[in-house]
Input
Amino acid sequence: MELPIAGEQLCVLSVEPLLAIGVGEYELHIGGELTVETSNGVEHFVVGDSARGNGDLVVALDGKVVSASVNDAGGLRVGLDSGRWVVVDADPYYEAWSVTGPNYLVVSMPGGELATWSA
Output
């Protein structure tokens, strides 16, 4: 499933208690773990982890979305023009991520099932 956020610039709105990212008319919310993949390796982040500064996460999320898709297991993969990939796997116990916008909502439910609403 493709998400309608390609071509939009990311803007971190908040990092606690969940990560809220503005993406044009849409918002991406991440409630737990995410991975940022780069050509230099992989960095793991846990949203709300006070032991680690959030500055690294904000810098890692700088860029314009070139692709955004959801896999069959409910995982999110967002490609940025910086060459980075933001990856959020589904979680067995909580809603791992959601995308909201005008008359649009997609949520990765516990276990990875997707709940979608659109007008």
In short: Residues 10-118 form one domain. The helical segments are 55-60. The chain has one domain: 10-118. The chain has a mean pLDDT of 91.
